[in-house]
Amino acid sequence: MLTMLGIIIGVGAVITMVALGTGAQRAIDEQMAAFGGDILSIQSSSRFSRGVARNLQTITTEDAAALAAGSAHLEQVVPEISERYQIKYGNQNLNVSTIGTTPNHLDVHGFEIAYGRMFTAADEAARRRVVVLGAELPAMLDADAALLVGRTLQIRSINFDVIGVLAAKGGSGWRNPDDDIWIPLSTAQFRVTGNDYVETISAKVAATSTVEMAMLEIERVLRREHGVLPGKDNDFAIMNRKQFAESRQEATQIFTYLLAGIASVSLVVGGIGIMNIMLVTVTERTREIGVRKALGATRTNILLQFLVEATILCLIGGLLGLALGAGASVLLARFAGWQTVVTAASAMMAFGFSAAVGLVFGIWPAKRAAELDPIAALHHE
User: Fold this and answer.
1) pTM score, whole prediction
2) Alpha-carbon gap, residue 134 to 93, rounded angstroms
3) Strand pairing of 113-116 and 52-55?
4) Range of the domain at 177
5) CA 237/CA 239 separation, integer angstroms
6) Between 20 and 30 A from 221 (CA), which of 23, 77, 125, 256?
7) Is 102 contained in some domain?
8) Does one domain contain both 249 and 228?
9) Are 122 and 182 part of one and the same domain?
10) Which of 212, 234, 256 is a domain's end point?
11) Whether residue 194 is found in the same domain as residue 306
């Protein structure tokens, strides 16, 4: 067991590190499935002045209307404005992200209504003071979600009627949309913020088109709307969520390989420990080797004997390390809240590597045993 300890720890560490990396990649995939990989975000570009980034605020609702009317590669367009405001319900006060948007926000971003309804185009046109809550807001307000529909809460001391509560969606590590609230865009602009611009336009790419074609068309339409002359830089920025997610996945994958490589050092250390023990074993069993050779054992027989012993030690250590790594992954997921995924590929890789370690580090002791002179071995005490 002491001989196998290095292999056990090494395999367990590799399995755990790869499980963490695979879990992180799986989480990114789930986030992209939730937020939509075919959605482009259009924002005002920033200009640096004396080391400070200043937003130009060039995106308007007219831009969104132009994109919706003049683009064959976009399925839906959603202008949005977002600010954090204090909301009050009963004796509860919260500071939450308040998003002014259009009724098709749910379709584009994949939300579903759990209770009540979403505000309509009529609510938007009339600038009605209605609000839809994220899934976690009822619990944060210490209220029942179904009973909140029809009640009144205050946003910046302005009364709003709660008309709906969304189903839980979940979010990324830095933002959770279930904590947000939504109001009609016109209400946000003219009753709450007082701004006539929008911060973001979310554009869903048509199923019959591609992200690249949609980005080219967005650039063409907005440059025309903003009067940007040829050769001049855009006064807006187009963000592709899919490319951002792919970059994160690549970084996570590299980090996973790095962690696995560091953990693999334990396997090498464990292999050196097995080689040392096998060398000691050859010394202790010199007389046994001499007897076997005297009875007709060939060099190949002796070589295979010690190679098999070293490999079996590593394979048993690999199995125990696999169990250790899987157990550590489960504990990290349960108590630390990290997403871990133990795949068959990672298990086979670690197990195969442990067998290879047994073969590589068992060759020298096995070769030394096979080359012993039988007469000298029989005289060894």
Assistant:
1) 0.61
2) 16
3) unpaired
4) 57-234
5) 6
6) 125
7) yes
8) no
9) yes
10) 234
11) no
pLDDT in tens, the chain (381 residues): 877 888 888 888 888 888 888 887 777 666 655 555 578 888 886 554 455 545 567 788 888 888 888 778 888 899 999 999 999 998 899 999 999 999 999 888 888 999 999 999 999 999 999 999 999 999 999 999 999 999 999 999 899 999 999 998 866 545 678 899 999 999 999 888 877 788 889 888 888 888 888 888 888 888 888 888 888 888 888 887 666 556 666 777 777 777 777 777 777 777 788 788 887 877 777 888 888 888 888 888 888 888 888 888 888 888 898 899 889 888 888 887 787 888 888 788 777 877 787 778 888 888 888 887 777 766 655
Q: Is residue 162 located within the same domain as residue 196?
A: yes
User: Would you say residue 325 lies in a domain?
Assistant: yes
How many domains in the chain? 2
User: Residue 244: which residues within 8 A CB-CB, separation 6 or more?
Assistant: none
